[in-house]
């Protein structure tokens, strides 16, 4: 597995969070839609989206999402959220880190 630079944070109030990250922290907006705002943060890209707050979500690239999911679930991870249309496959490891499995680009 290899990580991307993407970190996703789900927030209850997208507008307030966008104002904070852009105006208070001074991050440059790179993506904006009604449900998602992306920021360039230097070493990583921060994406905030309206959602139920699972905490920061990192993204890991894998050759086969379903095979990696099956293996990780067998080794103690739990499925947090899955939506192939996004695409999204959030898993939480036994120590509390949440990550998205994404196909290698």
Describe the 3D structure.
The protein has 105 residues and is an alpha+beta fold. It has one domain: 2,3-Dihydroxybiphenyl 1,2-Dioxygenase, domain 1. It contains 2 helices and 8 strands. The chain has an 8-stranded mixed beta sheet with strand order 2-3-4-1-5-8-7-6. It is elongated and about 45 Å long.
Rg: 14 Å
Number of H/I helices: 2
Top-tier CATH class:
Alpha Beta
Mean pLDDT: 93
Taking strands numbered 1, 2, ... along the chain, how are they ordered across the largest sheet? 2-3-4-1-5-8-7-6
**How many β-strand runs?**
8
Helix and strand sequence: EHEEEEHEEE
Largest sheet: 8 strands, mixed
Query: What's the N-to-C terminus distance?
Result: 12 Å
Sequence-ordered SSE layout with sheet pairings:
Blueprint (H helix, E strand, L loop, with lengths): L1 E10 L2 H11 L3 E5 L3 E5 L4 E6 L6 E6 L2 H10 L3 E6 L4 E5 L5 E6 L2
Parallel strand pairs: 1-4, 5-8
Antiparallel strand pairs: 1-5, 2-3, 3-4, 6-7, 7-8
């Amino acid at each position: 597995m290899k990580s991307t630079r993407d970190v996703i944070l789900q927030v209850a109030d997208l507008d307030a969070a966008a104002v904070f990250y852009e105006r208070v922290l001074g991050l440059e907006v790179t993506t904006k839609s009604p449900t998602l705002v992306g920021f360039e943060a230097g070493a990583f890209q921060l994406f905030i989206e309206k959602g139920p707050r699972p905490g920061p979500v990192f993204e890991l690239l894998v050759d086969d999402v379903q095979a990696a999911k099956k293996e990780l679930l067998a080794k103690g991870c739990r499925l947090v959220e899955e939506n192939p249309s996004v695409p999204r496959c959030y898993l939480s490891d036994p120590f509390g880190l949440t990550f998205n499995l994404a196909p290698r680009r």
